[in-house]
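A note from the maintainers: we've had questions about how concatenated examples are separated. There is no special marker in the raw files; a new sequence line simply starts the next protein. For clarity in this README we add a label.
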Amino acid sequence: MIYVRKKAVFVIAEQVFRDEEYLVPKNLLEKAGIKVETASTTMKEAVGKLGARVQPDLLLSQINVEKYDALIFVGGGGAEQYFNDRTAHSLANSFLKAGKVLAAICIAPVILARADLLKGKQATVYIDGAEELKRAGSIYTGNPVQTDGWIVTANGPEAAEGFGNEVVRLLTRSINQQKNKPPLTRG
């Protein structure tokens, strides 16, 4: 098998992102040898709900789908800033069309729902977003972590480890398995 270093980009809110939904998956990806970068709408230091401080590497508008293998939206109250963000929606759509991993945790799956990417897909979300996913045509499962093709969703901070492990699983599949062949649905 040919080894190709994978690269993922996390999208966090400038304020009130959920610390463990960022830190736990990020650490799991890095331990698996996946290069991680962080994007936001500003280059100012982002502050999590529990006080974590993160310096973004790039702006949301600077994300180039060709340079990354996964786009990961982090939850927390601040994630609402991306619910109707056209750039976030366009990026999510581009990653999915390119057959790359698209992931969202906690309330962030609402971003994917509003981008019209969850219609007919099994997904989960923090309970406050369940009705929104259903209205968008998603098959809401309520599972802690749900995978449907290249889309991974999770329902909150308690699912951060399982979420991170699932993203790692998808990113570390062999090159031949990944080409134009979506993975199985898992919940």
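[label: protein 2]
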Amino acid sequence: MHPTQPLLILFSAINLVIGSSAFVLASIVEPIARDLGVGVAAAGQATTAYAVGTAVLAPALLLASGGWPRKRALLGALALFTAGNLLSALAGSLPMLLAARALMGAGAVFIPLAAGIAVALVEPARRGQALSVVFLGISLSYVVGVPIGAWLGLRHGWRVPVGAATAASALALLAVAAGVPRAIRAPGASVAGLGTVLRSAAAVSVLATTLLYFGAVFSVFAYIGPVLRALASVSDAQLSWTLMLFGCAGVAGTLLGGWATDRFGALPTLRVLFGVFTLALACVPLTAGHPAAMLAALLTWGLCGFGTTAPQQARLVAVDLPRSPMLLSLNSSMMYFGMALGAALGGALLPQAGFARLAWVGAPLALLACALLWLPPESAAAADSAR
């Protein structure tokens, strides 16, 4: 076993907690809406609040903690995340829930912090695999956390899975306190580094791809429970199993993406995976009334969509290794801006599209992301050299 593997596995386990906490609300949006006395589209904005919290506050926190020891920064992030989880479980109104989810989003700065440490600890030839291990926890959240949370929330009320997520977040905090060495080193972020990154056309192109991809996904996934019911009339139990299978495909995709990145390169891997993902997403509405076809489209979406994680992160690291923590944080921001964009866009167009055709709201965004991957690399290089 590589000396860094235990630490990477710990980061992956904590990302499992973060992913489960973040995404479970999408599967129990209907009970939340009933309990808080709001519409489903309004309750779905809890995903938007979390996304905006991460997109806006996480880079600021990364800059503020740039000079801190990495262990202290990790602990601070998880403390915020745990507090947001607890306040979510206690929320008695939609505004309180939205504020709590935004605080959770700020604490999710743990993800780019952990990714930056992982990149700093391994040799270049292992970066794709290291990142795939760290982000495997996010994929596993769809296999373990989200289906179990959906089952608990639909059976016992939405506060039960959120309370369980709070306890898991507290355990994650203790695990970092006990398991991460104080002497661990990785580059921190700085305001000067942020300016350099934002002037890089290559970096902006990669970040825009992330934004569009997550916008496409969350125009549908923020309402995944009602979408699956509209397409195939799934029961509560079937919904949990479907989400679990989706997550299994995501786990396989994450590992596949890391392996393919190290073997074939990040850009060729992304072109194939994004293309197949876009096709699968566009086909989802066509599967209405055909459960087997719907499941096939979802599994293809999960396999190829999650497969983009490691190669996308590897592209960013290759753009500017010394500033990779800032790039990875901005990439997380684009992820969550994309989630907010997708959830808001899906909610706005829901009356016109309906749940069954909601994927067609996201498909054009996915197509734009594909187009960015085929831009001539010379154009970005020329733009950067001209600055």
